Amino acid sequence: MNKSELIETFAAQRDISHKRAEEVVNMIFNSMSEAMISGDRIEIRGLGSFVVKEYGAYTGRNPKTGEPIEVKPKKLPFFKVGKELKERILDGK
User: Fold this and answer.
1) How far is CA 43 from CA 15, 19, 48, 50, 87, in A?
2) Which family does the similarity line name (predicted)?
């Protein structure tokens, strides 16, 4: 499912306009993005949690030439699936 399919499903299930459903979905995604940018952890019971992992700098290798290159430190979003969702997927329900 992509974002537009989520909006369509939400609009149909809640019997609201496509425009209103899109506003709500965008508001949720923007709030989640802002929270992670400011370093907050997001936990949605029954689904999982979103965190930002920090990786330090290291020396890597260019795969073509084999030359060492310096890789800068970075922050990346990470999703950890919750127990309830994991069990639902395993059970196929």
Assistant:
1) 27, 27, 6, 6, 17
2) Belongs to the bacterial histone-like protein family.
> Tens digits of per-residue pLDDT, 21-49?
999 999 999 999 999 999 999 999 999 99
For the entire predicted model, the pTM comes to 0.77
Secondary structure (H, E, C), 71-89: ECCEEEEEEEECHHHHHHH
List Cβ neighbours of 71 (8 Å cut-off, separation of 6 or more): 57, 58, 59, 60
Per CATH, domain 45-93 is 3.40.50.720 = no
Q: For the chain, give every domain's residue range.
A: 1-40, 45-93
